[in-house]
Specification:
By secondary structure, the chain is an alpha+beta fold. It folds into three domains: 71 residues, no CATH class; 85 residues, no CATH class; 157 residues, no CATH class. 47% of the residues lie in helices and 17% in strands. The protein is built from 14 helices and eight strands. A four-stranded antiparallel sheet has the order 1-2-3-4, covered by helices on one side. A two-stranded antiparallel ribbon has the order 5-6. Strands 7-8 form a two-stranded antiparallel ribbon. The longest helix is centred in the middle third of the chain and has 31 residues. Bound molecules: zinc ion. The site of zinc ion has 8 residues, from loops.
Length: 341
């Protein structure tokens, strides 16, 4: 028995006023066939030498017992369930709506009723999968108040982007793992997606860069890295480029342009969809050094207003392109003869 506090009050046990202790006691109980140990809270009357639990304590002891059971049975505890719900900022009743459960189900799970395994699995999936939350939300839209819907949509989307970014980043890093000890491919830099994101943002935010479509952006990234290598013996980003018919293209570029900090619009062109990269509200570049931005400015000065064909044509004249077999990795050593100074 551990004493939490002692206070002078009416003792519920002997009905006299005296110093009453609030205590915790280790208890053991069998619930759903499992023996459970947990800590219960009581008032202790030293005159009657008796433990006494008021309504509130009976209730919280019951939750403690059931949480101990949940832990032992591998189920989410009440705190974990409400944490999942608060992550999405959604009310108990709206979450029930989304999941097609009775209106009080979550309220009960966050207190005395132990959830079954099927519902437990659904709550865990919800926690791990913001995309699924968004799907459920959209199909329940007509049943949810518009202001709440907008709020849930915003929170869910932010979580989805965060998750999606983590997923994309680890997929990109996995594709770069085999170049870790290949400075000729990386330009002597380990891939830094922070640098990549800032380079893209720097180009897209410049008012000296027009019509920044995909081919032009990828070429400008290569020119930035190659010029850095020429000047300082290392690239800026650590991207690894392949020689494709239109020039240098970084490995995993499809995932890179999908990162949440990279903004583009899709434009219907004659022969498919074009990706046009857009300025961002973020104008800070904490990872780029002043040498880096000088390099990017030189690339912008040369190619910022050039049409795509001009930059592709320039690339086709670089040793990096003529000396590299189609689809091979472009070696940074060729940057030494780069046309930019
Ligand atoms: Zn008493």
């Amino acid at each position: 028995m551990t004493v939490l506090k002692t206070e002078m009050r009416l003792c519920p046990c002997c009905m006299e006023k005296h110093d009453v202790q609030t205590v915790t006691v280790p208890e053991s109980n069998t619930f759903k066939g499992i023996v459970i140990e947990y800590t219960a809270e009581y008032s202790f009357c030293d005159k009657a030498d008796e433990l006494y639990a008021d309504e509130e304590q009976i209730s919280s002891n019951d939750i403690s017992m059931k949480n101990a059971y949940r832990e032992k049975a591998g189920l989410l505890t009440t705190d974990q369930i409400s944490a999942i719900r608060s992550r999405y900022g959604i009310s108990q009743s709206d979450l029930c709506l989304l999941l097609g459960w009775g209106g009080k189900t979550i309220t009960r799970y966050e207190s005395h009723q132990v959830q079954d395994i099927a519902h437990d699995t659904i709550l865990r999936k919800l926690d791990a999968d913001p995309e699924w939350f968004l799907e459920l939300l959209k199909s329940a839209q007509s049943s949810i108040a518009p202001a709440s819907y907008a709020k849930y949509l915003e929170t869910g989307t932010a979580l989805f982007e965060q998750d999606h970014d983590l997923y994309l980043k680890s997929a990109i890093m996995a594709k770069y793992a085999r170049f870790l000890h290949n400075p000729e491919a990386t330009g002597g830099r380990e891939l830094s997606l922070d640098h990549v994101e800032e380079m893209i943002r720097y180009y897209a935010n410049s008012d000296q860069v027009t019509k920044l479509f995909l081919v032009k952006l990828l070429k400008m990234l290569w020119y930035g890295d190659a010029l850095s290598y020429k000047r300082y013996g290392h690239s800026i980003s650590g991207l690894v480029y392949r020689a494709l018919p239109m020039g240098a293209v970084p490995i995993a570029y499809e995932s890179i342009i999908d990162l949440s900090t990279v903004h583009y619009e899709e434009i219907e062109m004659g022969d498919g969809t074009g990706y046009r990269f857009l300025p961002s509200e973020k104008k800070e570049y904490p990872h780029l050094t002043s040498e880096d931005t000088e390099i990017l400015n030189a690339v912008i000065q040369r190619f910022g207003k050039a049409p795509k064909n001009e930059i592709v044509e320039a690339m086709h004249h670089e040793d990096a392109y003529t000396e590299t077999a189609p689809h091979d990795i472009i070696q940074f050593k060729y940057a030494k003869t780069l046309s930019l100074l």
